[in-house]
Design goal:
Helix content of chain A: 25-40%
Number of domains of chain A: 2
Bound molecules: thiamine diphosphate, magnesium ion
Number of helices of chain B: 11
Distance between the termini of chain B: 17 Å
Structural class of chain B: alpha/beta
CATH topology of the largest domain in chain B: Rossmann fold
Radius of gyration of chain A: 19 Å
Radius of gyration of chain B: 21 Å
Shape of chain B: globular
CATH class of the largest domain in chain B: Alpha Beta
CATH topology of the largest domain in chain A: Rossmann fold
Strand order of the largest sheet of chain A: 3-2-4-5-7-6-12
Largest sheet of chain A: 7 strands, mixed
CATH class of the largest domain in chain A: Alpha Beta
Number of strands of chain A: 14
Distance between the termini of chain A: 45 Å
Largest sheet of chain B: 5 strands, parallel
Order of helices and strands of chain B: HHEHHHEHEEEEHEHHHH
Shape of chain A: globular
Strand order of the largest sheet of chain B: 1-2-3-7-6
Strand content of chain A: 15-25%
CATH superfamily of the largest domain in chain A: Thiamin diphosphate (ThDP)-binding fold, Pyr/PP domains
Strand content of chain B: 5-15%
Structural class of chain A: alpha/beta
Number of helices of chain A: 12
Number of domains of chain B: 2
Oligomer: heterotetramer
């Protein structure tokens, strides 16, 4: 066990994978001598050299296209996209190629690429250093989408991703890269996909969150508790595959759901959670499902704090749900 | 993967000169491909297959380049490269099964005709989006560097694909990392209705390589021997650490872009007639005839044999059934997720096998 | 009035706009001498010349990037992307630039580009000529997303799109390009955005559909009628902005909702509709919301008919909803 | 837009030779920009602004190129081009307001510092994604062709951006359509930590233009006059129908990539020290001193004046408030949709104005 920040845990996860498996290679912009703009790849270049820690030209198309080629050939590429906001030059490779390679070839060509990328707001990054567009990837059949919210999960889910047989989009909540510290198992720690983490149990209302919204929702649950409202909090961890049964079971217990994410609301990931409840837990719902999300505007700069979901907004939504019935 | 007498998976010993028996073998493949091309168009017209993109006019470029490859090499094709698969030893039947997307199709009927994948001969799954295979070929070549394998990757693409994002990214990465990659551009003069001259203002496509710090070569794509030696040279250079080469094989697309296309809307019959004079299949026939290796009867037999092989393969492909319904849900992931299992059951397909898909 | 197919109506809409406004220019692959691979731009090259009907090199990045430049400068570009499946090389320009230009410049630079593109399955097009990924665009703040299902709407919505001040992604259901014929007003016919079309009224269950699923849902409603089930059918027409009040009002009346689309279910557009109902019409819902959609697999080739929603599947879902309560 | 004595929106009469008074004016802008650069970095360190990307070392390239433009031209910038805005007549205050994203910011506080938009001088909204402005500049130039306007577009971008998709598509379209576009690449030798030599294997960046059928030019970007005449030539050629030009201005990024960057991790102090000897601001000072146009006291006054103007602008920017909450929902669309109105009300912002946003 070591006490690490989230970004340190990712760094240890990468180092662990590279030490134990010579097929793991890291590639991206500024991942080498610079150690990554968020220092996630710090020290790797020194330990593993330029052949396994590859500073690429400024082309996300090239990064993901070549990562796919590496994977097809048999290596285990871990590609870094500097910010999720800059993934779109590679979007064709991700949705048309990486996601569909195994399927379209009848299983002949698996495509186990891991795409790591920092995402989310709260760092005064404005319109292009703050976005949360996980829904694009979740809607794309063939991709797994993972979001850790603790250092231990960050390492454990990353190691699972690297050794998974399928392509994984690994979204790192950069806002809590350094603000969250926790105990992280040493060695080859793995956290399975498709299993939500119950952060706290409760009986009156279910909070669903992931990434940097988990700490905010935890705070909200604590506030609610003082008001006599017992909130259950689930950290979804893998958005795809989703732990549907945990989501449904929680609402069957509490009868109320508050869904939290930073992304815009319209067609956001929260819509899928709400739809799931409307389909499979309708008769358990005592109150309208609430979504506490970013607004349907581009991500702002000056008014970032107004835009982002926070503890107060979550508490307010949970209160309203409890009052509704 | 078994077969085929005509088209060995092994290339002849590296040499710029293709020996006559190899040329005769090449002719057999070219004729087989040409016959299949013509038959497939007819099959599409009859509604028996859904689509087809012919490669007539490009046989020398395809077969010549494929002959220069070795078994460990990896092929990243577009959608006109079935003769490359033939040269690498893929049975004709496997190709025709793909045109039907039937139960025997190695890709399980997941794609339109022409979008082949043959893992065993390192023939990577083709896709429709133009150019995407180019960066992938570079990535696989980076893998060969890492594993110190003495092999190359070859990316096939058209003149239109030189405008794609992946062309730019792929050639740039290849230049920077000096990857063992052969970029094989079949400039067939058209990208659907857009003529080469309006695709880009550069004089040749080959010269675009210079923007990435390596050499480009123009070759007469109707000349089997010229193509073979250009690719052999590029391959040798690549495995010796000399980095990538861009080869522009100048050919002409004799047929329509695909069965959905009507080329009369944008090009003249005269242009096509002129191009027909350079027909690469006839050119090889001519060579073999004039050097005495084959007489007309021998050539006729090659065509006969091709026709009967194609007819047989078509009959077999057509009589095979569709892939089973449950297969719809396989291969999305390595193993079935709970949601896919649920959908599969809701769809009333046979309960899919537990665990790993085929 | 003229009796036209859907693709002819689009062609007439383009011609109308180009005749009345010299700022309208059309650009894309094969739109000139070839008249478009689906013939949507047939005749335009002859009438308006190479300066206004621009055959571009094979680059969607270039098509949308230059269309944005044309719009910023003041023209009204209508860009054709040959198939929605091939839009991804332009995804960065669409989501990072076109959608955000007005916002990020504080309103200084409007960006009224129309992106027309055929989408959807049912033409034996397989994995790359059949997809429906409207949800990506709907989730992107700043884009309007429009899907006609009749010839009259195709022309009317297209003319509204071309003269709109905002960027529009105009999705054309290629499967019914020629199979649907209808009366289309001549001249500058416009259909407003944000207003759903009530295809038929009903009291027992609401069907929500768009594009090529509208005819299938109409058939389903007819079958249901014979069984004594009164189905209301809404053609949403514009997915963003969505006519939320029409959706909610319909379910307030019927108490049951069946949502139909071709796209994969997970995080598809139907999730937003279901979420809306779970938020704003929960107490009206008598039965679980049903989604009749594509599966969460890539679009198949051989098994296309198994994959696609159809009349039978819609009828079955509606029956189940009615039986549920 | 009013002001500014120092930096007229009009360029001098077209000529390869920049007259001395213009050079003196250029120096004022360069010094102003340099002072702002240094001040902005300090402000960021103090937490008073959120971010800053300096342009020190690139002033001659920026000001020299901007002087060669005319009012009808359109500028498609990246994020280091504030001196171009100054030359085109944008008030210093408007620039500093953007760094704060305050209520006076013309972009309504919607973007990080350095991402400017000034409609009135055709300075298009900058974005962070690298290279996207390049195809847009080509599109606007197509618009100029259509409207037969005698003007050009200029796209500013870095060495790193030559690897972007939009570089490839933009230059290719420009070549094919012969658009009046000047591609102005500031090769400052680094793309964050990646040195120019590993960005691409071509010898120069300028030569990449040949792949698109037009000319590329290398110019010493520390030489104000050389930049001015290169851009003037390219502009003249473009308006005369001669098509696009790619100009590579070789400069050096003296500062960090941005305030988030620590360049010590990837480059040596010695390299930077060497580059400092070519400092473009000192070079212009030297010229004006040696031709007798300015003495040291005159130069000092220019620096003084710049410092006081920047100080004033900073004070004003800092004391202005934030944009109003309701503005969060404006400009998503031309008019507020029902959903945005609902969200705005739920957010407890002032009820947004009806109908059209500002
Ligand atoms: C990204 C993308 N855009 C558009 C298309 C539609 N399309 C299919 S083939 C083709 C032309 C390709 O031309 P070229 O690269 O010269 O290859 P050829 O067909 O001539 O072999 C186009 C535009 C596509 N498949 N992918
Ligand atoms: C598409 C994209 N990928 C990555 C980034 C992150 N990034 C910001 S600036 C930069 C380097 C740009 O280098 P260059 O084009 O030379 O411009 P310079 O910063 O040197 O002026 C990178 C990688 C980005 N902004 N956009
Ligand atoms: Mg071609
Ligand atoms: Mg640079």
């Amino acid at each position: 066990m070591s006490s690490l920040t989230l970004v340190q845990a990712i760094n240890r996860g990468l180092a662990e994978a590279m030490r134990t498996d010579p097929d793991v290679v890291v590639l991206g912009e500024d991942v080498g001598t610079n150690g990554g703009v968020f220092r996630a790849t710090e020290g790797l270049f020194k330990e593993f050299g330029a052949e396994r820690v590859v500073d690429t030209p400024l082309s996300e198309t090239g990064i993901i296209g070549s990562a796919i080629g590496l994977a097809l050939y048999g290596l285990k590429p871990v590609a870094e996209i500097q910010f999720l906001d800059f993934i779109y030059p590679a979007f064709d490779q991700i949705v048309s190629e990486m996601a569909k390679m195994r399927y379209r070839s009848g299983g002949q060509f698996p495509c186990h690429v891991v795409v790591r990328t920092p995402y989310g707001g709260g760092i005064r990054g404005g319109i292009y250093h703050s976005q949360s567009t996980e829904a694009y990837f979740c809607h794309t059949a063939g991709l797994k989408v993972v979001v850790p919210s603790t250092p231990a999960d960050a390492k454990g889910l990353l190691l699972t991703a690297i050794h998974d047989e399928d392509p994984v989009v690994f979204l790192e909540p950069k806002r809590i890269y350094r603000s969250v510290t926790g105990e992280v198992p040493d060695g080859d720690h793995r956290v399975p996909f498709g299993v939500a983490r119950t952060v706290r149990e409760g009986t009156d209302v279910s909070l669903f969150a992931y990434g940097a919204m988990v700490p905010a929702a935890e705070e909200a649950a604590a506030v609610l508790e003082k008001e006599g409202v017992s909130a259950e909090l689930l950290d979804l961890r893998t958005l795809s595959p989703l732990d549907e049964s945990a989501v449904i079971a929680s609402v069957e217990k509490t009868g109320r759901a508050v869904i939290v994410h930073e992304a815009a609301r319209f067609c956001g990931f929260g819509a899928e959670l709400a739809a799931l409840l409307a389909e499979k837990a309708l008769y358990s719902l005592k109150a309208p499902v609430a979504r506490v999300t970013g607004f349907d505007t581009p991500f702002p700069y000056a008014l970032e704090q107004l835009y982002l979901p926070n503890t107060e907004k979550i508490v307010a939504a949970a209160r309203a749900a409890v009052r509704a019935a | 993967m078994a077969e085929s007498s005509v088209t060995p998976a092994r290339a002849p010993p590296e040499s710029v000169e293709l020996p006559v028996p190899q040329v005769e073998n090449a002719l057999r493949t070219m004729v087989l491909a040409r016959v299949l091309d013509e038959r497939a168009i007819a099959l599409q017209r009859q509604g028996r297959i859904g689509f087809y993109a012919p490669h007539s006019g490009q046989e020398a470029a395809l077969v010549g380049s494929a002959l220069a490859l070795r078994p460990p090499d990896w092929v990243f094709p577009a959608y006109r490269e079935l003769s490359v698969a033939l040269v690498r030893g893929v049975p004709l039947q496997a190709i025709v099964d793909q045109l039907w997307g039937n139960v025997n199709d190695l890709s399980k009927g997941r794609q339109m005709p022409n979008h082949f994948a043959f893992r065993q001969v390192h023939f990577v799954s083709a896709s429709s989006p133009i150019g995407t295979q180019i960066t992938q070929a570079v990535g696989a070549a980076m893998g060969m560097q890492r594993r110190k394998e003495s092999a190359v990757t070859i990316a096939y693409f058209g003149d239109g694909a030189t405008s794609s994002n992946d062309f730019h990214a792929g050639l740039n990465f290849a230049g920077v990392f000096r990857t063992p990659t052969v970029f094989f551009c079949q400039n067939n003069q058209w990208a659907i209705s857009l003529p080469r001259a309006r695709q880009t203002q550069s004089t040749t496509l080959a010269e675009k390589a210079e923007a990435y710090g390596f050499a480009g070569v123009v070759v007469d794509g109707n000349d089997l021997r010229a193509v073979y030696s250009a690719v052999s040279d590029a391959r040798r250079k690549a495995v010796e650490g000399g980095g990538p080469t861009l080869i522009e094989a100048q050919v002409y697309r004799l047929g329509p872009h695909s069965t959905s296309d009507d080329p009369h809307r944008y090009r003249s019959d005269r242009e096509v007639e002129e191009a027909r004079r350079g027909d690469p299949v006839h050119r090889v026939e001519e060579e073999l005839r004039s050097c005495g290796a084959l007489d007309q009867a021998g050539i006729d037999r090659i065509w006969e044999e091709a026709r009967s092989r194609v007819a047989q393969a078509v009959t077999a492909a057509e009589s095979a059934g569709s892939p089973p319904s449950a297969s719809l849900f396989e291969d999305v992931f390595a193993t079935l997720t709970p949601r896919l299992r649920e959908e599969s059951e809701a769809a009333g397909t046979l309960p899919p096998e537990e665990g790993r898909s085929r």
